[in-house]
Design goal:
19% strand, 3-stranded antiparallel sheet, elongated, alpha+beta
């Protein structure tokens, strides 16, 4: 016996997960990603909110992810202006260049889902 969930059903279930605290936009973006993944692989997935919560995390921005992921990160300059020290590697440039470097790092190591209001990053 099987129930097929729509994108909205998945987003609502994720959004209701109090242990994950997905924003509505984040839950919707993640639901869309999971459906696209399922379609591209041709494999049906079983909805498991706990597994999804363990695999993905939502952040307000790329910079928020970087500061949390590299717990000893030091941000220099206000609002991510010029420099970010991550695990001994210093990324310098304007805000856009630093965001591009963070984006590339995530994409090289995992999954990045960008949406209006934040990002979702897979564990790696």
């Amino acid at each position: 016996m099987k129930t097929t969930l729509s994108t909205s059903d998945i987003a609502r279930a994720l959004h209701r997960d109090d242990n994950a605290n997905w924003s509505w936009n984040g839950a919707k973006a993640l639901a869309e990603y999971l459906e696209e993944y399922e379609e591209s692989t041709g494999e049906e997935m079983e909805f498991d909110a706990v597994a999804i919560r363990c695999e993905f995390s939502e952040y307000g921005s790329l910079e928020d992810w970087a500061v949390e992921y590299f717990s000893d990160s030091k941000q220099a300059s206000d609002a991510m202006g010029l420099e970010l020290d991550m695990d001994g590697e210093t990324w310098t440039g304007d805000k856009e260049e630093i965001q591009d470097a963070i984006r590339s790092h995530i994409q090289d190591n995992g999954v990045l889902i960008e949406f209006d209001g934040g990002v979702i990053v897979s564990s790696f």
